[in-house]
C-alpha cells in the first residue's frame, strides 16, 4: 500500500465503517442470542407437553389393545382417513427467514374417524384422540425446532464476523494506518532535513558571492 495522505484518509474512512459495522453486528448477535433463549424456552415447554401427551397416548393404546385386541385396534387405525395437511410459509425473526408451519388439523369427534361406532369401545376413541393430540403437538414442535436451528446457524455466522472484525480485520487496518502515518512523518522529516541542507548550501553560495 502506497504511503500517501490520500491512502491514509481512505484507510481511516474504511476503519470507521468497519468499527460501525462491528458495533451493528455485536448488537445483532446479542439480539439473536436473546431471541434464541426465548425460543429455547418455548422449545423446552413444547417438548415437555409433547412427551406428556406421547406417554398418555402409549398408555391409551396399550389399554385399547388389552381390552379390544391388537387386530381391532389396527383395523380402526386403517379406517382413520384424515390427513394432517401442513402449510409452509415464512416469517422474519431478527432478519432471519424461518418457516412458519400451520395446519388446520384438529382432533376429531369419535364419529368422524371412519371406524364403526358399533364394535369398538371408548378405549379406541381415547387412544385415537391421544395420538391426534400428539400429532398436533409434533406440528407445533417442528416449527419451534426449525426456528431454533436457524437461529443457532445465524448466531454462529454473526459471531465469526464479529470476531473477524474485532481480532483481525480492524487491527490489521489500524496497523497499516499506523505504518503509513509513521512513514509520512519520516518522509516529512527527510523533506525538512533536505530543505535545511539546500538552505544551508544556498546561504554558503550567497556568502561567497558577497566576498566578490
Outline:
It is built from three helices and two strands; from the N terminus they run ααββα.
Number of helices: 3
Count of beta strands:
2
Task: Note the main sheet.
Answer: 2 strands, antiparallel
Mean pLDDT: 82
SSE topology string:
HHEEH
Low-confidence segments, given as residue ranges, are none
Report how far the terminal alpha carbons are from each other. Answer: 52 Å
Structural class: mainly alpha
Q: What percentage of amino acids are in beta strands?
A: 5-15%
Lateral arrangement of strands in the main beta sheet = 1-2
Explain what the structure shows.
77% of the residues lie in helices and 8% in strands. The chain is mostly helical and 212 residues long. It has a two-stranded antiparallel ribbon. A hairpin with a 2-residue loop joins strand 1 and strand 2. Helix 1 crosses helix 2 and helix 1 packs antiparallel against helix 3. The longest helix has 90 residues.
Amino acid at each position: 500500500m502506497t504511503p500517501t495522505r490520500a491512502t491514509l484518509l481512505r484507510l481511516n474512512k474504511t476503519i470507521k465503517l468497519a468499527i460501525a459495522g462491528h458495533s451493528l453486528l455485536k448488537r445483532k448477535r446479542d439480539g439473536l442470542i436473546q431471541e434464541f433463549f426465548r425460543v429455547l424456552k418455548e422449545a423446552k415447554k413444547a417438548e415437555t407437553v409433547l412427551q406428556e401427551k406421547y406417554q398418555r397416548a402409549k398408555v391409551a393404546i396399550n389399554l385399547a389393545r388389552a381390552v379390544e385386541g391388537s387386530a381391532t385396534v389396527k383395523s380402526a387405525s386403517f379406517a382413520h382417513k384424515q390427513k394432517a395437511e401442513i402449510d409452509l410459509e415464512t416469517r422474519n425473526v431478527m432478519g432471519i427467514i424461518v418457516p412458519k408451519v400451520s395446519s388446520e388439523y384438529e382432533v376429531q369427534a369419535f364419529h368422524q374417524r371412519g371406524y364403526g361406532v358399533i364394535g369398538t369401545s371408548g378405549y379406541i376413541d381415547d387412544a385415537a384422540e391421544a395420538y391426534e393430540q400428539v400429532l398436533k403437538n409434533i406440528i407445533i414442535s417442528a416449527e419451534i425446532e426449525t426456528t431454533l436451528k436457524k437461529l443457532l446457524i445465524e448466531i454462529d455466522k454473526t459471531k465469526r464476523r464479529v470476531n473477524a472484525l474485532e481480532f483481525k480485520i480492524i487491527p490489521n487496518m489500524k496497523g497499516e494506518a499506523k505504518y503509513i502515518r509513521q512513514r509520512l512523518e519520516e518522509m516529512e522529516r527527510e523533506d525538512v532535513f533536505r530543505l535545511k541542507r539546500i538552505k544551508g548550501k544556498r546561504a554558503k553560495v550567497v556568502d561567497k558571492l558577497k566576498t566578490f
